[in-house]
Amino acid sequence: MSSRSSLCALALLFSVAGAPALPAFAQAGPAAQCLVPGAWARPDGPLPQPLAAAGVLADMAQREHVLLGEQHDDMDHHRWQLQTLAALHAQRAQLVIGFEMFPRRAQPVLDRWVAGELTESEFLAQSEWGKVWSMPAELYLPLFHFARINRIPMLALNIDATLTRAIAEKGWAGVPEAQREGVGQAAAPLPAYEDFLFEVHGQHAAARGKPVAKAARDDPAFRNFVDSQLAWDRAMAEALVAGRQRHADADGRLPLAVGIMGSGHVRFGHGVAHQLRALGAGSVGQLMPVGADTGCAELQPGLADAVFAVPVVRQSAPPPPRLGVSLEEHDKGVRIAEVSRDSLAERSGLRRDDIVTEVAGSAAKRPMHLIAAVRSQPPGTWLPLKLVRDGTTLEVVVRFPPER
């Protein structure tokens, strides 16, 4: 797969037509409950081992780096991140926070935000939030404000989407060194990580009607996909190491570097932690939020140093509105790969191969721009879309049915 949306699938595979398909560790099934809501545990054998919050956080506060995973669109995951950041900061005031959400070029804007030189709207505009990340800013703003009011340096960990796309299309060796944004050669993937990437790659191919056979591990498309993921992990690891060095105090003491990133980069230590260790990092902590109804079999040993059981909220409200489409990234916007029969999309006149370029007047650069707009759309409202069909620009209005 050549798109950045394919890469984001390591944390979450999205389809507007239905529920998100998560990696196996995050799928809650009918298995007996193993976790206590609002408590920490260590995945260890048949049953997770309960952990005291004080012990977990005291241990993590002594590490060099701590990675906090997330499912990008889950507000409770971000609330947990904020809670954990506050607890770590209370124990170790010398702290820096790295964010997957920002490419390196946004670093000067992050510096000005932390210094109090920008308003919230100026910060989001100058960092090009709507372009560089696909999620509503409201999910992350509490984290950004926490950093600002405490004057904690923020680090831009990511690389530009054009680079990840180029690597996914051409492989690492196919991208000239001058275009790699200074990112070094990644350490080779652990075998289990390559297995995981192959599973993700196969899920994407199957969703497009192109199943990937086991014999296709040497397929250039998959090898490029691995290269792009490794470069992504390596870039974030390098930025954490460099940021930690840059913010040493007057006596040379180095801060705790906390990374905010998708759980796909954290799980089992295969992603960013592996690259950090290859760079010489001595102690890397990995923490993840999981649903409190996660089954025992899904909490495999080594998943993380500790997991926090986020309470599962049972809601009787209707689910978020669904268009009934599957999406793919496209050079000109977001391609509609499939339209479900009798869906809202079909009734609105959307067709397969339409390229959505604008959503409610804002550019649609990635599938999640459209997904986020649809999910946040109240019942009974209209959502205008601009699209290209067979070379012609059209405007379509999706009319969401009123709440019943």
Description:
With 404 residues, this protein is α/β, with parallel strands linked by helices. It has 2 domains: 4-310, Rossmann fold (3-Layer(aba) Sandwich), CATH 3.40.50; 325-399, Pdz3 Domain. Helices cover 33% and strands 19% of the residues. It has 13 helices and 14 strands. It has an 8-stranded mixed sheet, with helices on both faces. Helix 9 (191-207) crosses helix 10. It starts with a helix and ends in a 5-residue tail after the last strand. Mean pLDDT is 87; it is low at 1-31.
Helix content: 25-40%
Counting structural domains, the number is 2
The geometry reads as globular
Low-pLDDT stretches: 1-31
**Alpha carbon gyration radius:** 21 Å
Share in β-strands: 15-25%
* Mean pLDDT figure: 87
Brief summary of the model shown:
With 404 residues, this protein is of the alpha/beta class.
Write the SSE topology.
Layout: H1 4-8, E1 40-42, E2 49-51, H2 53-61, E3 65-68, H3 75-91, E4 95-103, H4 107-114, H5 120-126, H6 129-132, H7 141-149, E5 154-158, H8 161-170, H9 191-207, H10 220-246, E6 256-260, H11 272-278, E7 284-291, E8 306-310, E9 325-330, E10 333-339, H12 344-347, E11 355-359, E12 362-363, H13 367-375, E13 382-389, E14 392-399
Parallel strand pairs: 3-6, 3-7, 4-5, 4-6, 7-8
Antiparallel strand pairs: 1-2, 1-8, 9-10, 10-11, 11-12, 11-13, 13-14
